[in-house]
């Protein structure tokens, strides 16, 4: 067994931090309480542990391959994807009317972590289908929804997001793919899209491309971009004029083919407008926001698996006497304090970000289905604030965690057969795709902080403060220390919010010089807040005699988060508030 | 041109921080003043830029290959190595009597950075020869020195260090390779060595293995290990019984073959004892200490090249409007504050660690040749304190720098053809080989801090304080801010030294739980100290009208170091002093 899903921790977070009982009171989620969650998670764990996880290394050693316009997935992937869809995992969060399970995002996010721990390359295919389904649910016509969504939920077809072009990466205003209106109401698409994940493959019968393009005569920039659905095979079975011309040779996630797609080289690819003309970017953002959260979950998933591999090695590998002389000869390296420090760092990051992500998911559920509009709005603001943190922090920490995973293995970590190095290679895409960390940070500064005058950020700080107060009133040293650390982190967060608001209009360079550190600070504070809440709950449960081993572990991990991670916030604050000038002081010519 | 050697920065550090004028007053180094350094560095730059640097990517794409016991180096490597030796680079720091140049380590370290920037895989071969030469100079007989050193300096033969065995990595007490005494005074060696860098190849006529082994009946543990010289071909030309059975499939440095060597499978490998029996580990440490410093320099070298690649991309890649609206359309991404922050982080780390390494090198020179014994001792203590910092910090930062280098490239960074990803893959070995970061940190705590009761650490802190005083008295805001940051870092360092000394005997676990953070703190403080000294010098030179562009850049980079890197020390101190308990609190079974 190379992966064991952390079902217990997920259920603890769902119950104690994310409030699954409240989610189960939302309309439509009446059956989605803790018992359902436990049953679904157990089933999901079994599937991913048994079917998907064994494919991960195989996908690295035998990546997807390209020949003559065809992409062949790694052996075993097609069968596993078939099983995945058969078992209903593709439809987990999608509407029952289209064949889905209609479960809340809270449960979906936990299941998403598992399949990504099992294999990120594999999981990317259903992740992209999820995005396409989401976009069609939002902006597609009834006919489009009926034509595409059930087939995607059934796993017969998969979806893609075709945004990037060679000159248009983070900056989608530069998209040049053009759409020519046809007499029958359809369009013909012409252009080149790059970095299209699972843009071509043999795992399903058809591939539904959602494509950003410009209708002739549309305004320049982002306001002239429309969204089109453009399947590989048209409904009548004819092959559409979209062709894969190559796939990339990448650092990691090698099993997932990253395609260059040519649209319209043979007369034009038939596409149909989704929603209204020139509103394509808006619809695409719906997919992207879901995908950003999903990529954050990938970071957590990767960190979890890297951690598990490192723990196994550290238990087995015998080397050197313990520094405290507790055994006379060499011992398992897990007994060495620095190995423990590395493992605890990996574990604390993972649990902290998982708690943050699941709390965000529950807010999403409330934001979409709570009967009270004020509650919906408040949850929506909270969720939207957290999306860049989940994406940015979880992926950045996953890089550190994967690197520590290699380090725990020593020289063996550098040998590919060990498997630890793959996680490091795979992790590096997570801080880049679906918007780099800097793009997430821009979102945090602009849309999530400046736009509402810091209201959401301050509301979160107030909630953090309430947790501090609760912890400070407790008897344990662990709680009181955590209250102090959390207070320092909250104050740092507020200082930076003040700095952002005071300068964003007058000195944008200074604010954006600190945007990524701000994201790291805010994410660390929010994840640390969840660990602080977990600490309090675990102390109570422990006192009540409930699952003492788990509760003691949670307390220890939360405390580590406080002492070794949460305390980075103050330094980040200083860098942001006092160090902005130094970021842009060097003249361009001097680099 | 894919690499341009930073000769100007190296000469600035040599002259203004490392004191090359003083080095040139040491006996034997009378000709090694700034003019000589400039001439040597220019020549070295040309060679590495033109001959070695173009091979780096080739070595990644076409690694060393193994077949039938033979290893073939990447095409082009053999010719380049021949040119390298012909031009005298192998003998740069070695004695004139054996055909070397007899130059100080200060110049050697700068040249070492260049060849490693050009290609770490390539540079490893001469680096290992340097270690073997060093060991033979220290412990070899006159006959051994005469037989091996001139051939290695001429590049006809190369050297290796054969330490690691499957069960003996960081813990060399577990070495099992055995040496059986023969009637003629030689020994026959039997055993398996793994992870032997350039352990087999076709770049030279012979390979001189320096091998740790146990003579039959030797004491257990590290006190029973002896050092043997065991060449691939014996002096009479017969093939010795040491054979490569495989090479590793690695994450990075793929051009440098990492061999598994079998000694004695066909009757015994002929080896000759180097120095005295059972003192092998002591001699090996001579090689290792040189190699550890050398690996630190590899980190700096890799960071420099990753930085240069990222700067080039950031200048060329056009994407998105500047946040300050300074241009109406999309601009080169180097104009975006977060890209600047990443590039400045890369640059500041690299310059800081370079300054620290060259200052250490100058101390090594004084420690070995200064006429006054007290001065020698003082410099030796300073150098030895700095070795784990140079190794540990420079390699850890090189990982961050390489990762940022990929990040600057966005999606293109994840595509192998771009080249940025190779640096990340290559960097990961640097924190592992020649002693992991944790091993360096153990050395810092044990031999470098506890053993002299903190005397060296406190002496360094006092020197840092003198720099603070000087900076605080200056007029500029940059100087006074830096003085403040440096003071906080120094205080943090002293707090940790006190903590280490107070607890190392009574609570070793607590001290070693913070050993790596202590290393990072001490390294950051010392590198930051050098940047602070550089700031003061640069302000003076700028006021005098000397090279204003360079001096302004140095001031800006130093300031960035202060505002964004040096200020991490306080958080590290808190983690070490207050967080030790949390590192080992989780019960072993709970991982």
From TrEMBL, chains A, B:
Residues 161-265 form the Acyl-CoA oxidase/dehydrogenase middle domain. Residues 39-155 form the Acyl-CoA dehydrogenase/oxidase N-terminal domain. It comes from the Bacteria. The keyword Oxidoreductase applies. Its cofactor is FAD. InterPro entries: Acyl-CoA_dh-like_C_dom (IPR025878), Acyl-CoA_Oxase/DH_mid-dom (IPR006091), Acyl-CoA_Oxase/DH_mid-dom_sf (IPR046373), AcylCo_DH-like_C (IPR036250), AcylCo_DH/oxidase_C (IPR009075), AcylCoA_DH/ox_N (IPR013786), AcylCoA_DH/ox_N_sf (IPR037069), AcylCoA_DH/oxidase_NM_dom_sf (IPR009100). Gene3D superfamilies: Acyl-CoA dehydrogenase/oxidase, N-terminal domain, Butyryl-CoA Dehydrogenase, subunit A, domain 2, Butyryl-CoA Dehydrogenase, subunit A, domain 3. Residues 462-586 form the Acetyl-CoA dehydrogenase-like C-terminal domain. Keywords: FAD, Flavoprotein, Oxidoreductase. Residues 278-444 form the Acyl-CoA dehydrogenase/oxidase C-terminal domain. Belongs to the acyl-CoA dehydrogenase family. This is Acyl-CoA dehydrogenase. It comes from Rubrivivax gelatinosus (Rhodocyclus gelatinosus). The lineage of its organism: Bacteria, Pseudomonadati, Pseudomonadota, Betaproteobacteria, Burkholderiales.
